[in-house]
Amino acid sequence: MIDVTCAIILWEDKVLVTQRSEKMSLSLKWEFPGGKIERGETAESCLHRELMEELNIQVKILRTLSPSSFDYGKFSINLIPFLVNYLSGEIILAEHETYKWLSRNELKDIDWAPADVPILEEFLKLNI
Ligand SMILES: Nc1nc2c([nH]c(=O)n2[C@@H]2O[C@H](COP(=O)(O)OP(=O)(O)OP(=O)(O)O)[C@@H](O)[C@H]2O)c(=O)[nH]1
């Protein structure tokens, strides 16, 4: 089981979502940005590192949501979500195909990586 962090990044009334590139696994699926926890790293420090490496942004962590385990067949992941506020940094994509800032309603209409679906559902039930 691979531990992966991801961020629901809030800015005003929008949420940042990123699309995996054609070269990546789960090609062209949408996800909450983040990545694999490295040895000796906390989930929080992993999240800050990945968001800096992949997007060049800084965030403030607000809280966690429920982890989502998913078996992709070749590998299983435990996806650990954090609700965060966007703080600073101009977005520069290192790996992803593209990104979008979407309203809560628009989040339902994109083609999500399967592990993200329960996380999205929990987020949409929150009163924020
Ligand atoms: N970052 C991120 N990864 C996710 C999400 N949902 C999901 O299934 N994943 C999967 O979790 C793993 C995280 O990998 P990563 O982003 O750190 O690394 P990667 O694509 O370079 O790894 P890979 O080349 O092994 O696929 C990938 O297999 C990715 O498909 C998500 O919302 N965010």
Automatic annotation (TrEMBL):
CDD domains: NUDIX_MutT_NudA_like. Residues 1-125 form the Nudix hydrolase domain. It catalyses: 8-oxo-GTP + H2O = 8-oxo-GMP + diphosphate + H(+); 8-oxo-dGTP + H2O = 8-oxo-dGMP + diphosphate + H(+). It holds the Pfam family NUDIX. Signal peptide: none annotated. GO terms for biological process: DNA repair; DNA replication. One of its GO terms (molecular function) is 8-oxo-GDP phosphatase activity. Keywords: DNA damage, DNA repair, DNA replication, Hydrolase, Magnesium, Metal-binding, Mutator protein. Its EC number is 3.6.1.55. Its cofactor is Mg(2+). PROSITE patterns: NUDIX (PS51462), NUDIX_BOX (PS00893). Transmembrane segments: none annotated. This is 8-oxo-dGTP diphosphatase. It comes from Rufibacter latericius.
